[in-house]
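Lab notebook, page 48
Experiment: co-folding of the full assembly
Goal: obtain a model of how the components sit together before planning crosslinking
Operator: M.T.
Materials (sequences as entered):
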Amino acid sequence: MTYDIGFLGYGFMGKAHASALDRLQMFFPDAPTTNRDVLIGRNEDSVTEAADQLGFDRVATDWRTAVTDVDIFCNLGPNHIHAEPVITALESDVHVLCEKPLASDIGTAIEMRDAARRSNAIAATSFNYRYLPAVQLMKQLIEEGALGDIYRVKGRYNQDWLVDPETPWNWRCEKDIAGSGTVGDVGSHTIDLAQWIVGDIESIVGSLTTHITERSAPDQDGSRAVTTDDEYLALVKFENGAEGVFEGSRVATGRKADNSIEIYGSDGAISFSLRRLNELRYKSTNDRAYQQLLVTEPDDPYMDAWWPSGHIIGWEHSFIHQYYEFLNSIATATHHRPDFEDGVAVQRVVDAVIISSETGKWVDI
Amino acid sequence: MTYDIGFLGYGFMGKAHASALDRLQMFFPDAPTTNRDVLIGRNEDSVTEAADQLGFDRVATDWRTAVTDVDIFCNLGPNHIHAEPVITALESDVHVLCEKPLASDIGTAIEMRDAARRSNAIAATSFNYRYLPAVQLMKQLIEEGALGDIYRVKGRYNQDWLVDPETPWNWRCEKDIAGSGTVGDVGSHTIDLAQWIVGDIESIVGSLTTHITERSAPDQDGSRAVTTDDEYLALVKFENGAEGVFEGSRVATGRKADNSIEIYGSDGAISFSLRRLNELRYKSTNDRAYQQLLVTEPDDPYMDAWWPSGHIIGWEHSFIHQYYEFLNSIATATHHRPDFEDGVAVQRVVDAVIISSETGKWVDI
Amino acid sequence: MTYDIGFLGYGFMGKAHASALDRLQMFFPDAPTTNRDVLIGRNEDSVTEAADQLGFDRVATDWRTAVTDVDIFCNLGPNHIHAEPVITALESDVHVLCEKPLASDIGTAIEMRDAARRSNAIAATSFNYRYLPAVQLMKQLIEEGALGDIYRVKGRYNQDWLVDPETPWNWRCEKDIAGSGTVGDVGSHTIDLAQWIVGDIESIVGSLTTHITERSAPDQDGSRAVTTDDEYLALVKFENGAEGVFEGSRVATGRKADNSIEIYGSDGAISFSLRRLNELRYKSTNDRAYQQLLVTEPDDPYMDAWWPSGHIIGWEHSFIHQYYEFLNSIATATHHRPDFEDGVAVQRVVDAVIISSETGKWVDI
Amino acid sequence: MTYDIGFLGYGFMGKAHASALDRLQMFFPDAPTTNRDVLIGRNEDSVTEAADQLGFDRVATDWRTAVTDVDIFCNLGPNHIHAEPVITALESDVHVLCEKPLASDIGTAIEMRDAARRSNAIAATSFNYRYLPAVQLMKQLIEEGALGDIYRVKGRYNQDWLVDPETPWNWRCEKDIAGSGTVGDVGSHTIDLAQWIVGDIESIVGSLTTHITERSAPDQDGSRAVTTDDEYLALVKFENGAEGVFEGSRVATGRKADNSIEIYGSDGAISFSLRRLNELRYKSTNDRAYQQLLVTEPDDPYMDAWWPSGHIIGWEHSFIHQYYEFLNSIATATHHRPDFEDGVAVQRVVDAVIISSETGKWVDI
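Observation: model returned without errors.
Model output:
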């Protein structure tokens, strides 16, 4: 069977997902086959041009019929238009892959999760970083006990695309649209990785900051207030006794997609950074020092599908591996993770950081 | 117009090239379009399975008719079967892309180059590393004079896939098939990068070594002699007064595709390493220290086609950029580099290292 | 004039301080001269042997007379024996250099500070890391505005000497003696560096953890409870609007004296790590990327006293530079920083972290 | 017994040696004691001032009587004034430590070596880098077989103090005084480390270059020719079958005292760099990847004399360890290495590089 797929969204994420589907069979010949059937967008001209580039058979400007008319629906649009199309699709038992974060607020995320529970379809949240080989290996090592009890987790996702005060206002600066700034946008990746690898978070205390509070907005009489955070910081306590610190920024000079995680335990330590995503630093207490693993060996997760040792892969490959697992789950009717429960779990923590920043107190999850 | 393409070879390189063609339009919509028409191989079952995976319309077990029956012929097979199909194609004015090194010896490479001179078609050698964004930026900076006069060049391509003496014999260990060991195989990449970026080599002194001289060969009564080098070293003098050192190895423990180049000049220095292929280290004499450039900005070569800053790309992307340029050359009937002259130029240097290793003297190119 | 100096303490710190005094004149010929007059300790045999090794003229087993009988008194003993001898010395207008943290609790630290205010002598706290050339350069750059407004500060001091649960109990595990664990011991360095470079801390929320709660104690019927933290984490807000995160650990596998600070601002970023204490990473928003500065140039702070470029110095050199400044302050009767106000300021923050860890709330300083 | 010591030379090296002697007893209490007796120099005012700073009892402007009037004579002057005072001292059975390279040419070096053979005194060459803890550990690991058979050695010592063409002429630019440029000056360190760790060199081919051939010389009517090399490169073959490449430069932008060595063998690889002289990178074939060793543990060579783990030492410490061994050899009348045979062995290789650069051929040692 070939699965017909529909996408809502054709920006940066649309391209990453379409490219992943396009490449899947050549590298994973046993993957279920798909057909890029319909690309959904409001502007007919734009969506038609994008459909041509991304390899879709047809376009739709009304999502309502389109999302029930496919086998799989992928929502890659902005956060505030995730819920309605996704719920509609799930109600028709159409499988769903939704970009993170699930929604702009926890209430909406729960509605989506409930729709997923009621549906016979598979509902997945796209936390693609889980599917990088080095991150998979990190998870494996920890599951095998390589770190013993986890003591400390450090997660960050720093960027600098707003450090220049002359950079104009955009929708991510507006709380009513985006929900929050860094904490929801990039913080959700950190939170998901940490919970997936280490376990559930019990409580959190955090702080949101907006250093640059106004930006030029040519279409808004000159300037407009920034109502989302451009930095967040949080301390976390996990249920298993580990503690941690998370940070995110859009004003961290010189940092570009600096998505990193560092974990210390009783028997070892391990760290990962997106800038060098084919590498891990790992130390067992049996080793004298850290080893700098190059995760490009045939035995490493997913790497037998790619190139000989040392020929590194890129960021985009995470989506290919994610689709491989997602489609296999559909084909074999087995549960897929990260699901909407995972999406809600992340959103609860995002929400708690925002509340904590207002109350100045630790918030239980 | 859509160009029909034929491939000879469907191993590691076949996959890299097929994937590049497959992806080209989505990321470079203005690229000429191609059709993967025919895949050539001797074993009908294997080639049929590969054609299916790599997206070819049909297969051929006899290259003679196949290579003249397409618009573009890509020879991705072992070195000793490069010449005849390539020359046949060029004689029919079929465009050719041939993997490096052009041939197992300089005489054959010159025959191929002469065929290219006589042909109306475009003949390209696949030195794909030229097409990595960081390498392109390195070339640009040097052309703009960022390094001033070049003083010293250090190039290496180290691997360790033969460091284990238990690793069995394979065809790359046999001089009659492979021509040479490291110097032709990985050395050709170093030589091409150095000549492309710095200029022509004038003379060279080198040394080939074989540390492990016998390997198990189950099909050969137990073991077989290794007749190619597992390491080479060379000192080089360039026509413009620069000097350099090249090295290659298959027994350098812990090194995997360690393709690196480091260049010092009167006004600056710059270095690149494949392991972190999205990065450059660069110092101008005006700067106090080295900068670690992350070459993922939209202004960087080819990067506007890809992802936002900091989302790194992989080794395979070099082939996409190479096909973009090669196909554009065909479509616009303009000369393409690296051509067969470049292929011969590399082969001359490879040859000189082999001669020098025997005579113990500097060899003029 | 040659200053007679007395030391209380002859362990690791005693050696670092004695060596610094010993070397001062050869490298800073204009420094005031000193005489290592008296070494104070309770055990006459041990202190006599140490005095011989460290170059003291005589020993004393009673600090009371000794500390008033010198020009300068350096208290390098454990925290709980700082106060009384220091106050006694100051009351006799003997100059004092006291190791950090000033005391085991804030009340005692304030008593010491008050004694310093009443005294005509100079009272200094030994925050020696301020006197590393790279840290001095960091401070200079920030004072000159190289980072603009400070946005974020990350400080850490991680170690792993207690990660092995078999490591026996020692006095640093006992709250009644040590005051606290990591937060007072290594955290005080982080806090001082951050406040010195960035400015005063306004409020803090933190968490102390003890992962290994019992350790073997052969002299205590087998084992003994650990009553101090082996890790701390804190979020901080500075008066100038910067935010930060601090961490310290004795159970961070693979980290040895990992004293690092990283600062981001509107116009640049800079970081330092003790492991590579001759280096800084610095990025101006005018530069494309981080520069890796090697702080061994003759123009760098204190470096004209040492070796040619690239010949690195070590941890111990910080004490030499500190004594150079401390003695010059005495000789010229000018105020010296870090003084006891700085020592109290650090202690207040240490105290606030401990309180916050108990109350779960942000604490104003 | 306390040994009276005389120094010839009180520049950069004089200070490094004097400081080492000054510090020895505090950190190595069992070391033989010494007295800095006489400092030798031609200019009475300068030498008197230096003697005061470096802690010598008296000065001498005529070396002839001074060098026989002490127990130990250290020649730290320029290369061309090494031989005569050293031979004179040895003829009186005065122990000698001579800075490297032994002489400006091989003939003179052999005369010195012959004098050492005839003498009852101990004659040592100051190859201080052997005495860094990380280098000692490297040597130990290799002696224990950690690398198996050595395949390849890469040694370099790059600097950039002559990269600016405006830097004026100095005596190191004149062949008649200095003997050679980089190859004798910094190359001698590389050659000694390589031969000490790997074994004797059998043959070598090399090239000397002078990129900047004239420099300003205010006292010489404006400018003066540069007659020494500012870069050298060499390929080497060791008697045990290993091969290698050496390089040195004074025009390698951004490199300061970049003294590095990297060794690959059948069972592992290891590398060291002076910039991070407390570290080693080491990989056994049993490990997946390189470990980054921090060589500051109490078990590491000489480190129990210094500070707790992670508190790094500097370049100058190599001299302290060297004197510890040299003085112990004297006190126990046991042979010391590196001796003058080692000094001659280095000089032979320096000489061979110079000859090879002229003849264009491999030169047997």
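Interpretation: The longest helix of chain A spans residues 340-359.
Next step: discuss with group before ordering constructs.
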